[in-house]
Fold these 2 entries.
Entry 1:
Amino acid sequence: MSEEREKILEIKDVCMDFKQKRHKVVHAVNHVSLDIYKGENFGLVGESGCGKTTLGRTCIRLYDPTSGQIIFDGHDISGKLTKDTRKFLTSHMAMIFQDPIASLDPRMTVQEIIAEGLHNQGYKDKAQIDSMVKEMLNKVGLLPEHATRYPHEFSGGQRQRIGIARALVLKPEFIIADEPVSALDASIQAQVINLLMDMKEEFGLTIMFIAHNLAVVKYFSDRIGVMYYGTLVELADADDLYVHPLHPYTKALLSAIPEPDPLSERRKTKLYYDKSMHDYSKEKPSLQEVVPGHFVYCSDSEKEAYLKELDS
Amino acid sequence: MDNDTILSVQDLAVSFRTYSGKVQAVRGVSFDLKKGETLAIVGESGSGKSVTTKAIMGLLAKNATIESGKILFDDHDLVKYKEKDFCKLRGKDISLVFQDPLSALNPIMKIGKQITETLVLREGLSRREAKKKAIELMEMVGIPDPETRYNEYPFQFSGGMRQRIVIAIALASNARILICDEPTTALDVTIQAKILDQIKQIKRDRQLSVIFITHDLGVVANMADRICIMYAGRIVEVGTADEIFYHPAHPYTWALLSSVPDLETKERLMAIPGTPPNMVAPPEGDAFAERNKYALAIDFEQAPPYFRLSDTHYAATWLLHPKAPKVEMPDVLKARIARMRQKAGLDNE
């Protein structure tokens, strides 16, 4: 990855802790650092509970990061949220949620749902808002007359289109798509993925794509980060990650993907990951760049081993 | 029914009475389940795959009617069964693993009790024997430290663990048929892989016949011996796993296979346009015709019969009629199949 590429989002050593009863603390995101470049699709994968959604939500400040810094487009957006930062954030960053049923208010019409962001941004002219909503509906493949309907009148795929329209109406530069297709059927999934691709092209978006379906992430992303229990364990170009996975957890994850190919499924050996295989008693691990653009969470001696593995 | 067949569904039709009219969820489904095989039923939500299995188990909702058809099991027709008869059958001969492991377990009953319940009621075991057997079962499905876990509640288990418990309950009495209704949809890939291995292992050990319902084609490739593809309440194509994946014949199967990206897909995905039809008024002719770019004029008028491709492979599409124009599967799919065959070391035909 060349250094000249413009960074749109820099996550620096971010931690997100949740306090629980009896002073227990859950470290949902544990010292994660990564950069997202302008115009790329960044995929984030991991099991449920690994902190990928938390990281996404922290980036858009639905959560307040416990420590660390988030820099978006040159502005520090971590720390205390002032009115100005919030306004800057909401007009440049948007989120698409996983559940197309729960994420749309059942009592609002499609028009109201999509226009809500515009109202909050201070748009007053009713005719202008109307035309923006209609234009957006057209773009996502719905009809202008759908604007007066309620979410329950739509199918899952159409609802997800409404969610996408709501996210894009403010013409953001950066979209966080949190499992946007997980709740949809296979034939509808492809429609929504194609729509996201088209929208990316049209608006010049940068997308952070969070998902657990690795085949979809591989298809969609330029670079992929793998998370395990709050830690970013591997980060590489999509192709590189799938051809030369280095961290044992990534290998296990890749071997677990069921592929629509019975012959290779029958011969596949599955790998399992056990955290205790690392010996971190002497050397502390950190995210290290093993080869340019390919980062792995490892100790120095492991790095040597990974390099040898790549050579052979 | 020949000797190999353990369960035979013949021309089953199920409909639901609703406010908006009669929903024809299943419209003439026939299949045989052979001893020791895994039959996968694949389809989108609303295609009628779950309704078919619920009809087998006698678990249909009150507003459902079985319009026609037979479900033959051990020379008995399950369609004629009363609730009382089903009570003797469920769990003993046919077991069901539900999709959502959280709602399938009773939240205020200890795990041990939920497993032993069947053993005490069905097999007439004493409490102590039942406990011993339950712990064995928990061990078999891979629960570490089963003695302690026996006295815990469902909320103390993770999603994957809960699904293992549900499988343990399903296997508690020696059922001959195991129906898995999307058993891994709610789980992560790594845990899914473990659960699938477990089901395969148990199937081999006990020589179970499995009906496996899912919409994930990857999981199907991993599990199935034979596959039924369902669309809008009908089976549109049936064949062995190799036939469906390497020689698909129905346009819906083509569309389904090419709409999911695999690890090497680079080109734009072939999305299926439109949405599945409304089953209150299912379209005349082939239900898939409206979304099918290969549809012929006859597809809109008359439902296609099954055309035979081999002894095990049938597809319901007019494209296979001798008078139909020759249509080949989409290039994307052809390229992918060639790639898969190459990877497997088979030469291209």
Note: Chain A has eleven helices and twelve strands.
Entry 2:
Amino acid sequence: MLAAALVASLAACAAQPVQPWQRGHLARWDMRWDPDATQAALAEHTHFSKEGSSGRVGAAGGGCGCN
Amino acid sequence: MIHPSASLSALLGAAASLLPAAHASAASTDDAINRASYRFSDYDEDALAPASVIGDGKRYRVLSQVFGLDTRIADGRFDLKLDATHEVMSGSSPWFVLPDAQQRPIQVLSGATIRDHRSALSAALTSDPGARSNTTWSAAYSAERDYHALSAGVERRQALGDALTLGYGGSFSHDVIEPTDAALDDRIARATKNSASAFASLAWVLDRDSVLQAGVQLNAEHGYLTDPYKLFSYADAIIPEHRPGERAEGAALLRYRRSFAQIDASLHVDYRYAQDSWGLHSHTLEVAWYQGFGSGWRVVPALRYYSQAAARFYSPFALVADGRVNYSSDYRLGTFGAFSTSVNLRKAIGRWELSIGAERYHSAHGLALDGGNAAVPALVDFTRAYAGFDFGFE
């Protein structure tokens, strides 16, 4: 129910829908969530090994981090 | 210890293609359907100040290599991603903490230099990769001399109208640890850990220049969650540390992307809050600016701030035997904050894109937003430099 409410509220906020032909800027490489996914994974692996609750490590397998 | 469960970040990464027309306008390798990549990374920790250390103050260094392949198969009906990682680790690590005569902490580092290596393979298969709704199955295996992790996951991306994309999924991991010198150092000989993760997100096109993503993640770990290489100074004894056998964590994430295409730039802002059943909670804020300069040049400066409040059972040592059940002086469970700055320089040349970069990370107890007053003497500062390339092909 909470998710449905959130979806409804977000949809309602989209006052002017962005048409497919208006998405050129959104389609740029630098607008991806992780433009360099490999590098992002390396950085997250490092932070995860040194912090108590960093995000990730996806389904990509991790390691001990015992150091 | 790393819990290789599918995470919010993985989900959000998979949802990156919420825009089906995406990536069509960029040059060089940006729009390549098939791509091979290589990254080399040199991670080097600063030595601890000699005045507060017993043992070799030279700390950890990790040399990493990652080979990646991302390609369409079966006439384009599936996308296959393969990654192979190899790491070589060496150096000393924090072992336990002793009080000096004034009850100030003295960090003891492992006497012997550690040398180990880690190899990992991961694969992800996505059906209907060009569609706005698709499913990704993934599996991974990671092996060290003393640690093995096997994981699998599935995630679904579902378009909800033109502006919204729902993502959800889950994963499971089984880890086995077999510490070195178990009999010699009174360590557990073999132990296992199981981890499960579930996550969901919504990605929303705000306008023609910005997108927002919100997600939640739940993690559950069960089994041996203690670090077998850490000791704890308990009254007059030095004993192996001990952590709870279960851990539950909840996390929320917000990610925002804003394009400034007229100046060939974009802004990235990510925030994550996490809280777990050990009492540890954290805030992470990352801001990056992607700037193009023409002729294939790009530069990406970034700032990251992290703050965590300590786990309930963290303390550098116990002066008296108070009967506590769980205890650890692992600095990663203490209260601290950290700033890191990084920069990435990229140059596209035809189908190739070269990338070099560096990150400088500084952590300190005083940088934390809140948390306990217990000292955390082994906090780490490090420098990480990296280089690599991507190659796009038909």
Note: Chain A has two helices and no strands.
